[in-house]
Tetratricopeptide repeat protein (Psychracetigena formicireducens), 181 residues
Amino acid sequence: MLARIGQMRSNYLLQNHEATLASVVKVLGTDKIPPEIIREANFYQAKSFLALEQLDKALESFRKVAVEVSSKEGAESKFRIAEIYMRKNLDKRAEEEVFSFVNMNTPHQFWMASAFILLADIYSRAGDDFQAQHTLQSILDNYDLVNDGIIETAQRKLNDLRRKQTLLGAPKPVEQLEIKF
């Protein structure tokens, strides 16, 4: 069992996706494997399918891992599900997945913030730049970690939205019309 697990991990770290998938099958076919190894194997399988652009298979594997988000694999899996839905232009499903993730209370701030950045992208793609900007600003105001790329990504996307708004011209306030009876 240990050799199979080691082979799976090595293939994954070497980004040998086809070999990782073969190794995962062997590991999952082993008797009496601990739940954390099952989670790890399903996660590696999902990431390999994602790297190979097999999105439906990746979704299936990520769903197995995302039943809990207390582990880093579970948290990333929940984010990746939303990301895949967005890539497949299923923005409503992606948005629902982000809100489901929020309700699961993960301790992994990076993946939660990544989900909110994805949510801002969903809002922007739907034409709701106002909500997208406020979502990004909320990240900038509340995210505590530094040097993991979240702040930089949120700031860049917020700046892009502001530039877009400037180029298109900010909406002008509607004049109030008084109707006399």
Observations:
- The CA atoms of residues 85 and 101 lie 14 Å apart.
